Amino acid sequence: ILSSVTFALFCCLLLFEFNLAFMTSRLLMSKATSKIILSNLPPNLRFEDIDHLLSQHGRVVSCDKLTSKDPSTQTVQITYESAEQAQQAVTHLNGVQLDGNQIKVELAMDKRGGRRGPRIPGGAPFGNLPGQSRQTDFPLRILVQSDMVGAIIGRQGSTIRQITQQTRARVDVHRKDNVGSLEKAITIYGNPENCTNACKRILEVMQQEANNTNKGAYHYC
């Protein structure tokens, strides 16, 4: 009887250790894959300059400046809330042009991968990291004709991505709201100047679309 109890306890201990190791590995994997590396960033870029791009794909938890191989560029590590958000950011941001630089975005490897460089505390000019004070973003909500939404978004999101890069405002198109409605809502986030510039660019795109489809002048309300 004693040997049976001992064997049962031994099996339980093995099962517990296996589950603990499995959960630990899953946790480490989750932490690693929720981080992305942005390299070849312009030397004078600040966090507030790309915050609108990063926040389109999820909530940024932290940002750390890393040692860059090229001293004329910057490299940073961004941590998202989830691995899915990080993967989405890599898919949409890799190759984006910022102030003449084509940035490289990839998932961060763990320490054994050897890609992560040492962190630089603070680090100018890449200041205004999450948690530090920065200018408040104001929401601006506009209504557009539903048949203009495709032109505003562009092929594979190219037009709306260009608008956000040029104006440094975040643009959310509520395509799934009010299905069948003749109008769709668009919310623009940023400081007043950025919101105004983004709104102007959207109106220009709509006017161009009206001209291309022989609808004549687009009347703004």
Automatic annotation (TrEMBL):
Q: Does the keyword Transport apply?
A: yes
**GO molecular function list:** RNA binding
Annotated GO biological process: mRNA transport; regulation of translation
- For the keyword Phosphoprotein, the answer is no
Q: Which UniProt keywords apply?
A: mRNA transport, Repeat, RNA-binding, Translation regulation, Transport
Domain spans labelled RRM: 34-110
Highest taxon in the source lineage: Eukaryota
Q: Which Pfam families match?
A: KH_1 (PF00013), RRM_1 (PF00076)
Annotated region Disordered: the residues are: 112-131
Q: To which protein family does this belong? A: Belongs to the RRM IMP/VICKZ family.
Alphabetical list of PANTHER family matching this protein: KH DOMAIN CONTAINING RNA BINDING PROTEIN
Q: What is this protein called?
A: RRM domain-containing protein
- Species this protein is from: Photinus pyralis (Common eastern firefly)
